[in-house]
């Protein structure tokens, strides 16, 4: 498969904006920078940020064992996903394939970009229906989204199903690994060499505890990364975000400890949910949230709101009738949740 043939002609022909920091990258503190019309008086953020976020990438590169050249950072995964749409999907012409129930942004971004959506619902175990998916593909199917672990169901997809899809889909397969740090499943980042049509996205918003700074990560071949770099806004990740990401990534043991605490607490939560009389099913989770079926999701959701607890009502999602999604909180928060669920 040729990646070049998948790129929109407009994007292939694009002459990217060249920022001051693209044309000269100084790494010496004693240089005099009079090139970017900045205010020269130092306040910590008076200079434009590194457009390629090299320090953040070097830390991620060590952590994830992948070269910086195969990485692109965005203002949240949402920006990364939007860049992928704009690189590969021609408005009013191309389509994407999504597997509901799943993360809502894929179809929202498709709608914003005037891209068709082919939905192939997951099966009763929330696994992809591989044959049905491949049957839906047409000459304009550019992106296939596999969210694993999947939001809102919480499960990771079977490796063989994913492999078959990556190997047989004639477009770009985007594997959204927002929750991979909670999972025992191996990241697909290690498979990038093998599959040139693979894009893996991750985020600092979940396990890494930095939803507020908006930092999403895209891993792909150098060929794909260079296309995305051409179309991204030049300074898309701001200086404060880069600084905070650097300081947090340098304390990675703390993040790993938090992840293991959250996973222990998830087990406690599942145990306790089992004792709630109107909870009829708890779906296996490979993430930091639990999907559970109750007698009347909307009623229970509203009751929790009245008690000051906000969860996610997923009852309108295909295959999720009367399902609620609970994010794992601190032990104290989870206790409040369970006590409240018992009392209502
Ligand atoms: C939370 C989440 C993201 C993260 O989005 P950010 O924009 O990076 O905060 C991405 N994908 C899925 C499936 C998610 O649930």
SSE-based structural type: alpha/beta
Q: Can you name the CATH architecture of the largest domain?
A: 3-Layer(aba) Sandwich
**CATH homologous superfamily label of the largest domain:** Type I PLP-dependent aspartate aminotransferase-like (Major domain)
Q: Indicate the low-confidence ranges by residue numbers.
A: none
Shape: globular
Which fold name is given in CATH as the topology of the largest domain? Answer: Aspartate Aminotransferase, domain 2
In words, what does this structure look like?
There is one protein chain. The protein is built from 12 helices and 11 strands. With 344 residues, it is of the alpha/beta class. It has 2 domains: 3-250, Aspartate Aminotransferase, domain 2 (3-Layer(aba) Sandwich); 253-343, Alpha-Beta Complex (Aspartate Aminotransferase, domain 1), CATH 3.90.1150.10. Helix 3 runs parallel beside helix 9, helix 4 (76-88) packs across helix 5 and helix 10 (252-274) packs parallel to helix 12 (331-343). It is globular. The termini are far apart. Bound molecules: pyridoxal-5'-phosphate. Its cofactor is pyridoxal 5'-phosphate. The modification N6-(pyridoxal phosphate)lysine is found at residue 206. It holds the Pfam family Aminotran_1_2. This is Histidinol-phosphate aminotransferase.
């Amino acid at each position: 498969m040729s990646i070049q043939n998948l790129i929109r002609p407009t994007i292939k022909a694009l002459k990217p904006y060249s920022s001051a920091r693209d044309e000269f990258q100084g790494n010496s503190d004693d240089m005099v920078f009079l090139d970017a019309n900045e205010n020269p008086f130092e306040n910590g953020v008076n200079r434009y940020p590194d457009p390629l976020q090299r320090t953040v990438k070097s830390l991620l590169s060590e952590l994830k064992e992948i070269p910086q050249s195969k990485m692109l950072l965005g203002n949240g995964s949402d920006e990364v996903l939007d860049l992928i749409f704009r690189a590969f999907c021609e408005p009013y012409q191309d389509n994407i394939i999504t597997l509901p129930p799943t993360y809502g942004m894929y179809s929202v971004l498709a709608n914003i970009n005037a891209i068709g959506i082919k939905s192939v619902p997951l099966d009763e175990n929330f696994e992809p229906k591989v044959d049905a998916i491949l049957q839906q593909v047409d000459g304009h199917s550019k992106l296939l989204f596999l969210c694993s672990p999947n939001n809102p169901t919480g499960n990771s997809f079977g490796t063989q199903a994913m492999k078959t899809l990556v190997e047989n889909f004639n477009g770009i397969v985007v594997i959204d690994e927002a929750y991979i740090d909670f999972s025992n499943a191996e990241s697909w980042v290690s498979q990038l060499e093998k599959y040139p049509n693979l894009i893996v996205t991750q985020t600092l918003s979940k396990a890494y505890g930095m939803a507020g700074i908006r930092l999403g990560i895209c891993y792909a071949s150098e060929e794909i990364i260079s296309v995305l770099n051409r179309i991204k806004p030049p300074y898309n990740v701001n200086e404060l975000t880069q600084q905070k990401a650097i300081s947090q990534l340098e304390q990675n043991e703390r993040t790993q400890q938090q992840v293991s605490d959250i996973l222990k607490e998830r087990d406690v939560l599942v145990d306790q949910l089992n004792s709630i009389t109107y909870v009829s099913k708890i779906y296996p989770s490979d993430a930091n949230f639990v999907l559970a079926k109750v007698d009347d999701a909307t009623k229970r959701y509203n009751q929790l709101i009245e008690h000051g607890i906000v969860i996610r009502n997923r009852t309108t999602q295909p295959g999720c009738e009367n399902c609620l999604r609970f994010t794992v909180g601190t032990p104290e928060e989870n206790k409040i949740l369970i006590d409240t669920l018992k009392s209502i």
